[in-house]
Every structure is written in structure tokens, then in C-alpha cells.
């Protein structure tokens, strides 16, 4: 039996695995829970995510990926290994070929770390492809034509902005302002304004439920619980969309500037195409209320949220895997 081709969206917040002919077979948080004393892996993915902020002193639940690159090599390897076993990728007689996505400004050292982790978890050939390019393909854009396509991929650790034409990146920018930074902004705002400590999971819930980045956007309210910084006791407060709008303004402006910088460096003919076609938003950050409206106003071009924005990169790996043999020259040698 032949090894299967596997596409991996190795994200800071989530790992998605696409198997050729089957589609997306795994979507789990990029979290590993380890025993501090023995160094043993206790749980990975969804199970480990449920432990975040709730573990006893001897167990630590962490994310091995930070800002789109590997922060802890051993944990990343253990996580990849666990997920590949879970989807039966390693039960094949021959080792699978793996396509992994990375941010556009990744260094060769960081690239090697990703390839090494994948090879150690049992891959025959590892291919690296730039995230915005794969996201654009997964969003249904025909990037292989001689015309300009622009994609803004807002993930957990990085936001990648790119203009693509003829199957390649023409201009690109990658910044470390994305979903995780939004969570941190919310956490810090509540700490400063209400003297209340909340966890990462609560901040993420606030982002999903009530956050907006449109000036006159949604006006929702939500009750959240945390620990009072003055007396140390549990306390409940109510926050609204307008407060979160203020908390996120600075970070969202960084994304707007990154998109403007890419447009400013784009050849005029391709800029004209982008005015016609618009900008495609992908990644989990595309679901942030009002982000399409804000970017559209600031850039002066139509901004469209992709269908299933969180799955675009994984779906894109599937499409590229179909043409993997044509891309053999993309393999990075160690």
C-alpha cells in the first residue's frame, strides 16, 4: 500500500490535517500537557486544551508553537506524532509525504525546525509552502493566472498579507499581531479597567461572543467571571462590545497598516486587478465582527470573507497535494 499525501496547517492556535481523498480529518488546538517532573506528555490537542489554566502544579499545559513558528521542538514533535497516529497516517506501510505551511517571513532556521519535526514524526518527504498562498488556493482563488489576487490571513500567532500572481507571492508582509494578541488585549483591558484577572480561555470567549472592530458595530453584552485583584475573591462583571472595540483598536490598526504597506508595494497593473476582485480574508481572525468592513473602508477595495475561513489553509494543502509531483522542486533540503 502506498503512503498517503498529508497536508498540515501547523497553526499557533490549531492544527488541521488534510488527507488526500478524505478532506480535513483533524482540527484540534495546538496544546500539549506535560508532567514537569518526568517530562512525559500527558495529553495533546482538545484534551490538553481543556486543562489550560486548570492544571495542578506538576502538570503544565502549553502551546509549542508561537507566532507561527516552533517555540518548543520536542513538544511540537510529540504533538505532530500524536496527531498523525490519531488519523492513522502512520499505519501505512510506506511513510507519507507531508506538506506544511509557514508564515511568509520565516527564517531558514525556523523552516528547518518545522521540516525536522515532521521528518522525526515519520514523513518520507516534507514540502514547505507559504501560508497566504495556500490560504488563497483554499479560498478558491485562481492564483496561477497572470492577474493580481490579495489575501489577508489572520491566524492565531501571525497575520500574513500577500499579493499573488502566476502562482507566486509578488509582495507580502507577516506581522505577529493576530488572534492571540486580541486575546491578550482583552485580558489586559479587563485587568486595567476592572482590576479583575481572567484566564486566556475567558478572553477568547469574549472575543468570539461580543468583540467588534467596526466603529458602530454590534452592541452585545456578556457576563464574565474572574479573580478580584484587590481582595482575591471571585467576582462577576458585565462587559459590552464598545469596550472591547476600544481594547482591540491598536492591534487591528497594525493589521490595517500591514495591508496598506503590501498594497503600496504592489505593481499598478496588479493593484487594478485587486480593485476588481477585492481582498479575501482567511483564518480565524476573519470571523472577528466588523473586520471586513473596517479593512474595506481603510483600503478602499472590496473585502470578502472566505467561506470556512478557518479551513482555507488546510483545504489549500489538499488542492496543492493534488499537484504535488509538479512541485518537487519546492522541497527544502536539510
Automatic annotation (TrEMBL):
It comes from Salibacterium qingdaonense. PANTHER family: CELL SHAPE-DETERMINING PROTEIN MBL, CELL SHAPE-DETERMINING PROTEIN MREB. One of its GO terms (biological process) is cell morphogenesis. It comes from the Bacteria. The keyword DNA repair does not apply. Forms membrane-associated dynamic filaments that are essential for cell shape determination. Acts by regulating cell wall synthesis and cell elongation, and thus cell shape. A feedback loop between cell geometry and MreB localization may maintain elongated cell shape by targeting cell wall growth to regions of negative cell wall curvature. GO terms for cellular component: cytoplasm. One of its GO terms (molecular function) is ATP binding. It holds the Pfam family MreB_Mbl. CDD domains: ASKHA_NBD_MreB-like (cd10225). InterPro entries: ATPase_NBD (IPR043129), MreB (IPR004753), MreB_MamK-like (IPR056546). The keyword Cytoplasm applies. It is found in: Cytoplasm. This is Cell shape-determining protein MreB.
